[in-house]
Each structure stands twice: as structure tokens, then as C-alpha cells.
Design a protein that fits this description.
Layout: H1 14-32, H2 39-46, H3 50-56, H4 60-84, H5 89-100, H6 106-118, H7 123-150, H8 158-179, H9 187-198
Helix pairs in contact: 1-2, 1-4, 1-6, 2-3, 4-5, 4-6, 4-7, 5-7, 5-9, 6-8, 7-8, 8-9
Amino acid sequence: MSTTSSRPRSRKAPAERAAEIVAAATAIAREQGLSGLTLRAIGERAGVASGLVAHYEPSMDDLVARVYADLVEEEISDVQRIVATAGDPAAQLGALIDTLMDGGREEITVIWVESWALARRSDALALAVRAQMQRWQALVEGIVEDGCRAGAFTTTEPGEVAWELIGMIDGLNAQSLVRGSGPARFAERTARAAEALVGASPGSVPVARA
């Protein structure tokens, strides 16, 4: 006569399980980009069935948007801290260029590049992308406005200048993903271009030499 022994299964609280699923999705996005986020991949990383992932995250679009927003929020907060300790507006602009073009943020560059493409088919992600782009706009525009008030910059269009500068940095970072060389060697050129855009004295925006 055989008997079947049963052991009580450990059940995690819903909030804990949900947090594990989001953490798993975030780890995958860091390693593989947003395109790596599938129910199966997240389930395997979290150690649960894909059906359980779908139970806790019924909308993959919403999950992708959340992961994207969390990762970009982390990046922006980090850059804000770096810029805030750099000194005057010209030094802050240089610190911004240095930290965004030092080649150490490739994983988040992949997130950005994919988000622009994927947002065309996801309203949730599009909303998140626009919100984070506006945060970047506000950060850079604030530096330019401070420089104008201090008399270091002379542009009368800080918003447009900020947008141009962000586009320049984003473009070089995105191209570096496929060119096989980091964007750091263009930091000096970008700083000189930034000086022209904001109306600063030549050589006044300091960057590390590549």
C-alpha cells in the first residue's frame, strides 16, 4: 500500500509576487532591451508560469511602459545628481555631455531607441515616452535658462536649443550602437556645438578629453 505525502506549498503574497515579476521584466529589459519582454521570458526569469505573469500583468503594453518609465526615471535622477554638483551652468552643460556620452549608458540607449519604435504601436508606451522626453527637455532647458540669467549664455530660445542638443546627443549615442565605437570621442565636438547653440564663449563648456 502506497501513500502520497503532500507538503504544504509556500504561497507568496500577491504584492510580493507582482514585485518579483516587475523585477524580472526590468532585468530582462536591461540585458536585452524592451523587445526581450515576453510572457515566457519574464516567467522563466521569475521562476513562474507565463500564465501567472499574465494574471498579474494582463496588459503587456502597460508592463513594458512601466519598465521603460522606471529605467528612464533612474537614469534621469542619476544625471540630475551629477549635473547639480557640477558648478555653474557652463560646467553643468559639460557634465551633462560627459555623462551621457561616456559610453557607459549603452543599455539605456537601447531602451530609448526601442521605445521610440515600439511606441508607435502602444498608446501606453507612447504616453510614457512623451512624459520622459519632457523631463529631459525640462532638465536641459533649465540649465540653459540658468546660463542665460547668469549672462554666460545668450540664446533667446532655450527650449528649442535644449531640444536640438538632446537630439544631437541621442543621435550620436544611437549610432554608436551599430558603429562599434563609443560616442565619447565626439564629446568635445558636441561641447563646441553646444556653445554655439546656447551662445556661450568658445571653450567655456568643459568636457573630459576622450
